[in-house]
Amino acid sequence: MYTGPHCEEVLAKAFLEILGFLLLISPMAYIYVFASQFHPYHRGFFCNDQNLRHPYLPQTVPIVQCVLIWAAVSTFFIVVVETVRARAEAQAGERRHKPFHNNPTPWIAVELCRYFGY
């Protein structure tokens, strides 16, 4: 029967989360803290600049399409990962059969709600 995570497991996951956060924030921290005092070099206007011949496109991919792609990719990976995890836990005999007591809700619905609900 599943008893929940141990303190060492929670601490290890929290350490990995904090380490990942620090690794992701370090490039932006460098830019904002150390490189903010330097001003970029601005070149003047040239009549034969090749970039001026092309029209400016404000947005090439609509936001609705971005959201749909994000939702489809996220759902696909959640379903694949949860299916693999459920099979691995079923073979090891560690997983509960129902996520809630006396409720037929499938695990995949719980995980999708957890991901998209937060």
Helix and strand arrangement:
Layout (H helix, E strand, L loop, with lengths): L6 H27 L29 H30 L14 H11 L1
Textual characterization of the structure:
The structure is a single chain. This protein is mainly alpha-helical. The protein is 58% helix and 0% strand. It is built from three helices and no strands. It is elongated and about 75 Å long.
Which terms would index this structure?
mainly alpha; 3 helices; 118 residues
What is shown here, in short?
By secondary structure, the chain is mainly alpha-helical. It is 58% helix and 0% strand.
Major sheet summary line? none
> What does the average pLDDT come to?
79
Low-confidence stretches: none
What multimeric state do the chains show? single chain
Alpha-carbon distance between the termini?
A: 28 Å
Q: How would the global form be characterised?
A: elongated
Order of helices and strands: HHH
In terms of DSSP E residues, the strand content is: under 5%
Radius of gyration: 24 Å
How would you classify the helix and strand content by structural class? mainly alpha
